[in-house]
Amino acid sequence: MIGLILVLTPGMASKDLFVYADYGNTLGVHGANPYFISPHQAAPRDILANIDVGWSNATSAYGPVWNLVIAFFALLFRDHPLPYFYAYRLLGLACHLVSIGLIGSILRSAGRSERTITLGIFLFAWNPLTLFENALGAHNDIFMGMLLLLGFAWCTYAEKKDFTRLKNYGPALIFFTLATMIKFTSLPVVIFFFMLLAARTLNTAHVPLKKMQWMQALKNVALAVTIFIVLSLLFYAPFWIGHSLKDIAHSFAAPPSSTGSENSLMRVAVNWLKDTRSMVSSDSLITRVATILQSRNLWNKIDTLVMATCVLVGAWHLWHQPTLRTFTAVSLGTLSCIILVTPWFYSWYIIWLLALAPVILAFPPLKRTNKALLAFCIAFSITGFATYIDLSFLPVKYFELAIRYTLTVAPPILLFMLVYLRAKSQNIRVED
Description:
Elements (H helix, E strand, L loop, with lengths): L1 H7 L7 H13 L10 H4 L4 H5 L12 H14 L3 H29 L4 H12 L2 H9 L4 H19 L6 H15 L6 H16 L11 H27 L4 H9 L11 H11 L9 H9 L2 H25 L3 H18 L9 H6 L11 H16 L16 H23 L10
């Protein structure tokens, strides 16, 4: 009921659904390639290109699966804005409901009690941020989250069979791959899946190093990687045919999300330099620090470093404990770190975390790291709303974004540290 109310709410907190409609119209109606031709170039007189101010002159930042989905809607609604307004919201609500069912299925399949199943479902289903961003905002992040949950749900099925056989793990790999074809941020989950498959084949937790089946592990991982690459190319190929490698590489760097900044420490630095240019000396320490932090190139390197570090840490844990619990924890932890350091952040990105957080409850007993991750995700779902706060009444304008950014990221980090440090070293059960 709450979801339907939000679907029918006339107000909007984001115009993303019209961005989707504009790109879908570019591909589905005008037959233009959204990775190389902007909506304004394809149809400058369409009403969607005029509504979609800010993104109509940019090429698509979304994966090919999402571009195909929005092209289908465009074939139905063409350039009429109103149908999109409800269609994307209904799609967001539908994905929200399917995700609820998947969370319940995962927890039930893992043999958790009704109390734990209810808790896991409520963590996602009744979370104000998920309802707000899925049913009202209609963001494609819930579509990605649903695909991730489908992958984890199939993993729990494969766990009861022989996980290392293609017929058992194959569907999970396909769902994870499709998630990366919505947004590339799902890629760490795929990488950890390959690691889990290798570790399970080698049986690293019980078999001595010299007796491990290295050749079989290599074959399994090579096959899984091949499936991922082939499936990805099948979706991308129609968009890439006729374009050079240089143009293809440029298409990934062209969207504003690949060059700009929003709701991040980088954006705080950019705004500080812009707003205090005539008031603060260029030689002051804070100005020098802000000058360094405003570089997107720097943040790209930080992103790469954080990603590499998380992958290495995750690999170490999966080697020693090749279980679905470890796979879930390292995936959730890595996505959390990516969100914290990304220079381009919006509150609906937290949906990635909220979709996976309840899955941790499927694998008790909870260790303090997992408990701290749950606390972090719940806190983040509350502070994420801080990005919407209007602080224009403040007398010092250049502190507005800094305050919003601090209110958004500081409490979840502090709560994670508090829970981690105060939790007992022994395992903490969540069962009745």
